[in-house]
Sequence to fold (140 residues):
Amino acid sequence: MQTVIIVIHLIVVIALVGVVLLQRSEGGGLGMGGGGVSGFMTGRGQTNALTRTTAILATIFFLTSLGLSVLAGIQRGQRSIFDSMPGGAPGAVPGAPVAPGAGGGVLDQLRQIQGSQPTAPAPAAPAPAAPSTPQVPGSQ
Fold:
């Protein structure tokens, strides 16, 4: 259903851009030249038809936009950010104090991770010896 509305929406957008570009602006723009009175559509008739077509296409564009947003809202469904929290109690009140050792906070989880990994002392690296003379790049 959503794909059909998207295709209709794109067709309406392309038609709307075309109709707007065909309209005669104050300076002429891309509007199709009027010619004589004996043309198929006179200046006034052409203006009325293009204005009416623009209004109809704009209304269809508006309705398809609303329809797509309603469909996207229905498909998304409702969910809570608290459902995806690891280790959080589903009925916990935000801002309520957490018992020590409950493991509900980020810092508590980090402490548990660090506590489960063995900690090895960092090897002491000897300090580099200071050169007695200034170092000059050698030629190659």
User: Anything to note?
Assistant: The mean pLDDT is 75. DSSP finds three helices and no strands in the chain. The radius of gyration is 36 Å. Residues 43-76 form the longest helix (34 residues).
